[in-house]
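Sequence, please.
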C-alpha cells in the first residue's frame, strides 16, 4: 500500500556539476566524469532507500538534460544546426538541435546505466525516458514535416530502447510528457498514440509523468497565467485512462489542480505528487499524509503511489534529501492511519 517513488531527477552533488542549477555543465571530464556519475547515483540510491522510498531511481545523474541525454545517441539530428525555438508554447525560448534526416538509434543509449543501477539495489528500479511529444517540442524539424510523424518515429526508437532497459532489469519505465499539459488537442489527436507505441510490448510497469514543471521562474510565471483552477488534466485524462499506460504521475502538492480530476483515471495507478518541487520548505510527514488522504476522496487507496510533483534537480541537495525522507515518512504515516 502507498508504494513510494520519485518523479525523476535528483540534484547533482557539487563535485559533479554546479549545484542548484538546472542543466548545469559537468565539473569532471573523461574517466573521472564517468566514475563520478556512477558515484552520484549510488549516493541517491542510498538516500532513497534510507528514506523509505520503495521504487528507486538513479536520479538522472548520468545526463545533463532529460531530453537531450537520449537525443545525443540518435542519428538524423544535426547538433550544429541550432534553431531558436519557443518551447512548451513559448514558455521558454531556447536553442534546440534540428532533425535533418531519418531518425535511428546509434545503439543502446541507457542500457549500461540501468545495468549498473540494477547491480546496486534490491529495490524495484525505475528509469525515466522523455516522451515522444515532449521530445518533438524540444527539437526543430526539417525532415518529417508533421510533428505527429516525427513523434511516431521517436516512439519507435523509444520502444526499442525501453525493451532493452527492461531486459537490463528496469521494473518501471516512465515517459516524461510535460508537453501533455500544454498541447491538449495534440495529445488527443496523436500524443497518446505515440506514447502507446513507445510502450508497446513491454512487460514491465509503465508510467507517464505529466507535471507543471520544475520550480524555476519561467514555470512559476506560467502558472500565474493558468487561473485559480488548473484543469489541463481534465482534457487529457480520459484518453490516458483508455490507454495501455499503467500509471500516471501528476502534480497534487500545493497545486491548483482540482483533485476531483483524479477520478477520471479510475483504471490507472496514480503517482500522486505529494512533494512540492517549487518550495525549499521540507514538508512534514503529516502534510504528505494529508495530500494522500485528499487524493483518497477521489480514488481508492490501492491506486495511490505517493511521489514528488516533478524532479528535484534544481533544489539544494540537503533539501531534496529532506523531502525524500518526508515522502517516505508521510506514506508510512498514511499507512498507519489507514
Ligand atoms: Zn516534471
Amino acid at each position: 500500500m502507498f508504494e513510494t517513488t520519485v518523479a525523476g531527477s535528483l540534484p547533482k552533488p557539487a563535485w559533479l556539476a554546479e549545484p542548484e542549477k538546472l542543466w548545469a555543465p559537468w565539473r569532471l571530464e573523461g574517466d573521472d566524469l564517468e566514475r563520478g556519475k556512477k558515484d552520484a547515483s549510488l549516493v541517491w540510491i542510498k538516500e532513497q532507500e534510507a528514506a523509505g522510498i520503495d521504487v528507486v531511481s538513479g536520479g538522472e545523474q548520468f545526463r545533463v538534460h532529460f531530453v537531450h541525454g537520449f537525443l545525443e545517441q540518435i542519428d538524423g539530428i544535426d547538433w550544429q544546426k541550432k534553431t531558436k525555438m519557443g518551447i512548451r508554447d513559448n514558455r521558454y525560448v531556447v536553442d534546440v538541435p534540428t532533425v535533418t534526416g531519418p531518425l535511428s538509434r546509434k545503439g543502446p543509449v541507457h542500457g549500461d546505466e540501468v545495468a549498473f543501477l540494477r547491480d546496486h539495489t534490491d529495490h524495484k528500479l525505475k528509469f525515466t525516458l522523455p516522451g515522444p511529444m515532449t521530445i518533438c517540442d524540444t527539437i526543430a524539424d526539417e525532415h518529417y514535416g508533421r510533428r505527429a510523424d516525427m513523434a511516431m518515429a521517436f516512439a519507435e526508437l523509444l520502444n526499442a530502447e525501453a525493451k532493452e532497459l527492461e531486459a537490463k532489469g528496469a521494473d518501471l519505465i516512465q515517459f516524461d510528457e510535460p508537453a501533455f499539459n500544454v498541447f491538449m488537442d495534440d495529445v488527443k489527436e496523436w500524443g497518446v498514440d505515440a506514447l502507446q507505441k513507445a510502450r508497446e510490448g513491454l512487460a514491465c510497469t509503465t508510467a507517464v509523468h505529466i507535471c507543471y514543471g520544475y520550480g524555476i521562474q519561467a514555470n512559476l510565471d506560467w502558472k500565474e497565467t493558468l487561473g485559480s483552477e488548473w484543469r489541463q488534466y481534465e482534457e487529457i485524462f480520459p484518453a490516458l485512462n483508455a490507454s495501455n499506460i499503467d500509471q500516471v504521475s501528476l502534480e497534487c502538492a500545493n497545486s491548483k489542480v482540482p483533485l476531483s480530476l483524479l477520478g477520471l483515471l479510475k483504471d490507472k495507478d496514480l503517482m500522486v505528487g505529494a512533494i512540492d518541487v517549487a518550495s525549499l520548505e521540507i514538508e512534514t510527514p503529516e502534510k504528505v499524509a494529508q495530500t494522500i488522504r485528499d487524493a483518497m476522496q477521489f480514488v481508492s487507496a490501492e491506486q495511490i503511489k505517493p511521489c514528488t510533483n516533478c524532479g528535484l534537480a534544481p533544489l539544494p541537495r540537503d533539501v531534496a534529501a529532506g523531502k525524500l525522507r518526508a515522502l517516505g515518512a508521510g506514506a508510512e504515516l498514511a499507512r498507519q492511519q489507514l
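The first helix runs from residue 30 to 51.
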